[in-house]
Specification:
Layout: E1 10-16, H1 21-30, E2 38-45, E3 48-55, H2 58-66, E4 74-80, E5 95-96, E6 100-108, H3 111-120, H4 133-143, H5 148-153, H6 155-158, E7 161-169, E8 176-181, E9 186-190, E10 193-197, E11 209-212, E12 218-222, E13 225-229, E14 235-236, E15 240-242, H7 258-264, H8 266-277, H9 282-286, E16 296-301, H10 303-320, E17 323-328, H11 329-332, E18 344-350, H12 356-367, E19 372-376, H13 382-386, E20 389-392, H14 405-424, H15 428-439, H16 441-449, H17 452-462, E21 467-472, H18 477-491, E22 494-499, E23 516-520, H19 527-538, E24 543-548, H20 550-555, E25 560-565, H21 574-592
Parallel strand pairs: 16-17, 16-18, 18-19, 19-20, 21-22, 21-23, 23-24, 24-25
Antiparallel strand pairs: 1-4, 1-10, 2-3, 2-4, 5-6, 6-7, 7-8, 8-12, 9-10, 9-11, 11-15, 12-13, 13-14
Length: 610
C-alpha cells in the first residue's frame, strides 16, 4: 500500500438534477480548515466544461462566480495547497484537457516523465503542477477509444505516488468518476444527488451515510446511484458509515476565531469523554489487548500528538509500571527494526487519522505483526479503520489549524487507557488515583478558562518579543514543548521548549532581559528542583512568566515578572489543565500581532507532505 506522500488539498463534487454551484461552494467552505492557497470549480454547462479559479479564500472564488452564470447540475471543486508550482490561477485545480476536467489530491511522483511523454504526443501544458498530467492521460485514452470509466481505470498503469481524483468529462456528462490510491476519498448519496469529498464531515446535511473508499477503488457516481469497483475492476460493496451531524462545529458561535471557540469547547469535550469512557467497560470492549502480557508500548505520532504521547509515556511508567517509547512517525517509518524479544503493542495518535507518516508507520507495524491501537478524532479515517483497535477522541470537528481541544482529548483518552492497563497489570491503587483525578478534570479545565482575562495582558507584552523559551519538568516538560509549538504556529515568534534541568547544559546561554521565559511551575514533588532552575534564570535577568498554583506563585513571587494561576489539582492531571493557559497565551499573542489565527501561513490541518 503506497502512503509515501500526501497533500492537504480538499475535493468536493456533486451531481444532481438541480444546479449545484452553491453546493460546491458550501463544500469548499467546509474544507477550508485543511489549509489552502487557491480554489476552483469546473462544471458542465450545455455539455461544455466551464472552469473558474481564484487565488486566496473561497470567498474570492464565490465573488467571481457571482458575475457569471453557472447553471450546471454536475461539477467538481477543489481547494489547493501548493506543492508543485506557486499559488496562481494557472496552477489552481481543476485542470482541463480536451473535454476532461480533474481535481487531484496527492503527488504524482513521475509527473516529469509523464509530461515529457505527453508533450511528444502533442499535449500542451498551462501549469507548473504535477496534477495537469492526469486530465491529459484521461483525454488521450478517451481519444483512443476508451470510455471515461476505463480511461480513469488506466491511471493506475501510469501514475506513481498517491492520489485521489474526481473526474468530469464532456463525453460522459451525467457521471462523476473518481479513483483513490493513498489519499482519502468518500462517496455518498443524499436526497438531492450524489457527492464526493476528501473529508466525510463536509457531507453533513447533504447525506446521512457515506462509503469510505479503499485503496485502489474506483467510483461511478450518478445523481441516484453509486457503483464501486476494486483495483481489479470487480464491482464491490463497501460498508457505509454514518455522516455525523456537525452541530455548531462550522459555526464560530459568536467567537472571533474558531481557535478561541475550540479552547472554550474543552470542558464539554472532557464531559463527553467521561460520559462515553467511564460508563461500563468501554475501553475493554474496544481494546482486547492483555496489557499484563505486554513488555513495552511503542507510541507513534506527529506534532502536537507527539507531545500528548510524551505525557502518556510518563503515565504508563508511573501508573501502569509499563515501559513506553515515543517516536516521531516521520522517523519511525524509516528506522531499522531490532528484534529484542520484547512483547510490544503500538499506539498511534492522530487528530485526522490521515497523516501520511503515521499511516506509513501503521503499515510497518502491521507487517511486523505488532498489535496497533489507533486514537483518532475522525472516526471514518484510514487510521481508525485499519488499526487493530480504535479509540475515538470525541472532540468534535476541530477547524482551527492549531490543535487545542483535540490535544486535550488525546490526553484524556490516553490517561484512561493507562488506567485500564494499570488495572490489568495489578496496579489498582495507582489506577484508582488516576481515575479519581480524571473525574475532577472537567471542573479544573473550567477553572483554567476563568483566567482568560489575566492572560490577555501578559500576551500583549509577549507579542513584542522576537523569541521565547518555555520550561517545565516531569510531565510538564512535554507541555513546555507544546506551548512553544503553539506560539510558533500562530504568532510566528521563535520559541523553544526545554526541560528546566537542562538549561545549565546549554540553553541558559539564550537567557537575557529581552527573552520571556514561560515557566510551568505548579507545586509538587519536582517543584523545589524547578524553583532552583528558575532562580538561576532570574540571576541572569531572565523575564519569567510563571504558570502555577497559588502555593507555587507565592513561593516564587519575588522573581516572576508576571504570574498566571493554575487551578490546584492532582499532579497526574496537571498537564491536562496546564494546556489551557498555554493555548490562551498563544492565541492572544497572535491577536495582538494581528495575524490570521485559524489559518496560519504555511500550515494545514489534516495531513503532512513528506
Amino acid at each position: 500500500m503506497t502512503r509515501d506522500l500526501e497533500t492537504m488539498c480538499g475535493i468536493f463534487a456533486a451531481v444532481s438534477d438541480k444546479p449545484v454551484a452553491h453546493i460546491l461552494l458550501e463544500g469548499l467552505k467546509r474544507l477550508e480548515y485543511r489549509g489552502y492557497d487557491s480554489a476552483g470549480i469546473a462544471m458542465l454547462d450545455d455539455h461544455k466544461l466551464k472552469r473558474v479559479c481564484a487565488v486566496g479564500k473561497v470567498t474570492e472564488l464565490e465573488s467571481r462566480m457571482d458575475s457569471e452564470a453557472f447553471p450546471g447540475c454536475i461539477g467538481i471543486a477543489h481547494t489547493r495547497w501548493a506543492t508543485h508550482g506557486s499559488p496562481s490561477e494557472a496552477n489552481s485545480h481543476p485542470h482541463m484537457a480536451d473535454g476532461v476536467a480533474v481535481v487531484h489530491n496527492g503527488i504524482v511522483e513521475n509527473h516529469g516523465e509523464l509530461r515529457r511523454r505527453l508533450k511528444r504526443q502533442g499535449c500542451s501544458f498551462l501549469s507548473e503542477t504535477d496534477s495537469e498530467v492526469i486530465p491529459w492521460l484521461i483525454s488521450r485514452a478517451v481519444a483512443g477509444g476508451a470510455g471515461a470509466a476505463n480511461a480513469v481505470r488506466s491511471l493506475s498503469d501510469d501514475l506513481e505516488g498517491s492520489y485521489a481524483v474526481a473526474v468530469l468529462t464532456e463525453a460522459d456528462g451525467d457521471v462523476l468518476h473518481a479513483k483513490r490510491h493513498g489519499s482519502p476519498l468518500v462517496a455518498a448519496l443524499g436526497p438531492l444527488g450524489g457527492y464526493l469529498s476528501s473529508d466525510i464531515s463536509a457531507l453533513a446535511g447533504f447525506a446521512d451515510e457515506a462509503i469510505v473508499l479503499d485503496d485502489g477503488d474506483q467510483v461511478e457516481l450518478r445523481r441516484d446511484a453509486i457503483a464501486v469497483f476494486d483495483k481489479s475492476g470487480r464491482a464491490v460493496t463497501r460498508p457505509r458509515m454514518t455522516v455525523e451531524a456537525v452541530g455548531n462545529d462550522f459555526d464560530k458561535g459568536g467567537y472571533p476565531h474558531y481557535m478561541l471557540k475550540e479552547i472554550h469547547d474543552q470542558p464539554g469535550v472532557a464531559r463527553a469523554i467521561e460520559s462515553r469512557y467511564d460508563a461500563g467497560d468501554f475501553i475493554a470492549e474496544q481494546v482486547t489487548l492483555d496489557f499484563n502480557r505486554i513488555d513495552r508500548i511503542r507510541m507513534i505520532a506527529c506534532g502536537t500528538s507527539y507531545y500528548a504521547c510524551q505525557v502518556a509515556r510518563r503515565w504508563f511508567a508511573e501508573v501502569a509500571g509499563l515501559s513506553a517509547d515515543v517516536e516521531l512517525a516521520s522517523e519511525h517509518r524509516y528506522e531499522p527494526v531490532v528484534a529484542d524479544g520484547l512483547r510490544e503493542a503500538a499506539i498511534l495518535v492522530s487528530q485526522s487519522g490521515e497523516t501520511a507518516d503515521t499511516l506509513a508507520s501503521l503499515d510497518k507495524l502491521k507487517g511486523l505483526r505488532v498489535p496497533t491501537v489507533g486514537i483518532v478524532n475522525q472516526q471514518g479515517s484510514t487510521l481508525a479503520r485499519e488499526a487493530d483497535f480504535f479509540l475515538p477522541l470525541l472532540a468534535g470537528k476541530e477547524i482551527g489549524v492549531a490543535s487545542t481541544k483535540a490535544f486535550l482529548a488525546q490526553l484524556l483518552v490516553l490517561a484512561r487507557l493507562v488506567a485500564h492497563a494499570a488495572d490489568q497489570r495489578g496496579h489498582r491503587a495507582a489506577a484508582k488515583r488516576l481515575r479519581t483525578a480524571l473525574v475532577a478534570a472537567p471542573k479544573a479545565i473550567e477553572a483554567a478558562l476563568h483566567n482568560e482575562s489575566a492572560i490577555v495582558a501578559v500576551a500583549e507584552s509577549l507579542a513584542k518579543a522576537q523569541s521565547a523559551l518555555f520550561v517545565g519538568r516531569g510531565a510538564l516538560y512535554p507541555l513546555a514543548m507544546e506551548g512553544a509549538l503553539k506560539l510558533k504556529e500562530i504568532s510566528y515568534i521563535h520559541a523553544e521548549g526545554f526541560a528546566a534541568g537542562e538549561l545549565k547544559h546549554g540553553p541558559i546561554a539564550l537567557v537575557d532581559d529581552k527573552t520571556p521565559i514561560v515557566a510551568l511551575a505548579p507545586s509538587g514533588d519536582l517543584f523545589p528542583k524547578l524553583a532552583s532552575n528558575l532562580r538561576e534564570i532570574a540571576a541572569r535577568n531572565g523575564r519569567i512568566i510563571l504558570l502555577g498554583d497559588r502555593k507555587a506563585l507565592l513561593a516564587l513571587s519575588d522573581i516572576a515578572s508576571a504570574s498566571l494561576t493554575l487551578p490546584s489539582c492532582d499532579e497526574l492531571i496537571q498537564p491536562i489543565v496546564a494546556a489551557v493557559p498555554l493555548q490562551f497565551l498563544a492565541y492572544y499573542v497572535a491577536v495582538a500581532r494581528g495575524l490570521d489565527i485559524d489559518r496560519p501561513r504555511n500550515l494545514a490541518k489534516s495531513v503532512t507532505v513528506e
